[in-house]
Automatic annotation (TrEMBL):
CDD domains: TPP_PYR_DXS_TK_like (cd07033). Residues 10-175 form the Transketolase-like pyrimidine-binding domain. This is Transketolase. Pfam families: Transket_pyr, Transketolase_C. Belongs to the transketolase family. The keyword Metal-binding does not apply. The lineage of its organism: Bacteria, Pseudomonadati, Bacteroidota, Flavobacteriia, Flavobacteriales.
Length: 321
């Protein structure tokens, strides 16, 4: 098992803020829009560098999306920012009609995704957003795993022509990816090569998958771990090549098991290569208030839950031999 270490922990939303600060210097067409959550989205440095290119919309998310579509029509590159729940559920009609339908070059940047925004509870958490956004034709969907990857993704999507949903979070987590990485949309990252089981993980659960891989190694199980940061378009080749080698797969995500990464992988396997699959995801429920660690434990999203899923899927694989 390849060893991953870290010297600090940061929230992924700060990676977004750092990426936006860099774009303020690099790309004069990038503009920022925020729905009354400047601090939560870490827009401060962008505003310091380019105040004339920032728009505080207030708690009017639908208007924010409409304004972003208009700015894109004038060849600007708008980055909208609010909580993931308000970036999708509250404004889905505006995204569908004003952005996706016409393929506008709008970057919908969504913080506080999943369960781990914590104590704010189910009204502010969202576990359906990946499913909502990947259903929109032409929408690219990205879910990053740490500070460095989020910063790199933020910078990369500015050069991509078309609508993008960029999903990141609130909790402080290990920074374990390369600081100077190149982010390639639609290209999976091979975290660890293995031969016994494939673990396909996204977002905050990539670190949990790494911890699970270390536990499994101690038990004689060699896990291949793949970071799918781009859920749409899915890197089908990377997943299929791995599953054909290992014969089984576990998908891990901080999202409802319905409509997320797991379902995308299942659809791929049904059509291309039948193999046993187990999900590590929230099982068709809303969240609740609690600390991130409490919620990850209660809803079955920890490294130990990934280990249990690996044992189950490998048992199913052996039954099919």
């Amino acid at each position: 098992m390849k060893k991953y270490t870290y010297t600090e922990k940061k929230d992924t939303r700060s990676g977004f803020g750092a990426g936006m600060a860099e774009l303020a210097d690099k790309n004069p067409n990038v503009v920022g829009l925020c729905a009354d959550l400047i601090g939560s989205l870490k827009f401060e440095k962008f505003i310091e560098k380019a105040p004339e290119r920032f728009f505080q919309i207030g708690i009017a998310e639908a208007n924010m999306i409409g304004m972003a579509a208009g700015l894109a029509t004038e060849d600007k590159i708008p980055f909208t920012g609010t909580f993931a729940n308000f970036s999708t559920g509250r404004v889905y009609d505006q995204i569908r009609q004003s952005v996706a339908y016409s393929g506008k070059n709008v970057k919908i940047c969504a913080s506080h995704a999943g369960l781990t925004l914590g104590e704010d509870g189910a009204t502010h958490q969202i576990l359906e957003d990946i499913g909502l956004m990947k259903m929109l034709p032409g929408m690219t969907v990205i879910n990053t795993c740490d500070y460095n990857q989020t910063k790199a993704a933020t910078i990369a999507i500015a050069d991509y022509e078309g609508p993008v949903y960029l999903r990141f979070g609130r909790p402080v987590i290990p920074v374990f990816t390369d600081e100077n990485q190149t982010f390639e949309i639609g290209k999976a990252w091979m975290v660890n090569e293995g031969k016994d089981v494939t673990i396909v993980a996204t977002g905050h659960l990539v670190w949990e998958a790494i911890k699970a891989g270390e536990i499994l190694e101690e038990q004689g199980i060699d896990a291949e771990i793949i970071n799918i940061h781009t859920i749409k378009p899915l890197d089908a080749e990377a997943i299929l090549n791995s599953v054909k080698k290992t014969g089984c797969v576990v998908t891990a995500e901080e999202h409802n098991r319905l409509g997320g990464l797991g379902d995308s992988v299942a659809q791929l396997l049904i059509t291309e290569y039948l193999a046993p699959q187990e999900y590590v995801a929230v099982n068709d429920s809303f969240g609740e208030s609690g600390t991130p660690d409490q919620l990850m434990e209660k809803y079955g999203l920890t490294a130990n839950d990934i280990v249990a899923a690996v044992k189950k899927v490998m048992s199913r694989k052996s039954e099919n031999l």
